[in-house]
Amino acid sequence: MSGGAGYVLSKEALRRFAEISLPNEDLCQQDDGGAEDVNMGNCLKSVGVVSMDSRDNFGRFRFLPFTPENHIGQREWNSQGFWYWNYIKYPENTGVHCCSDLAISFHYVSPSDDDSAGVPHSYHLRSLVDWIQTSMDDRP
Fold first, then answer.
1. Contact present, 2 and 87 (Cβ < 8 Å)
2. pTM beyond 0.70, yes or no
């Protein structure tokens, strides 16, 4: 589970986290130490919430823990010793095939990062809003 790019939880998962796991120090770490996403995953796991595969049909990630240019170029982690490789459950495709056209979120992206080396992110990534609009236009 990667938390930097956000979480999607069902109502029941959120209820279990807020009402059962979070207030119980035996189920959920109470201090601010450790990695937030690891702690969140442990809290959810302690009340029977399991993570799901959120990749698209081509095995491309939708929640990404780095910027689009980092994932596309894999510049920061070319060595197999980089911590990221120890935490991902599924292999990441390389180059422009890394990220789903329907990516939901990237971590470490600021408004000034809208353009990467002169190529807008949307050049490689299809907007979810466009996809929804197209789907709605195709309805009978």
1. yes
2. no
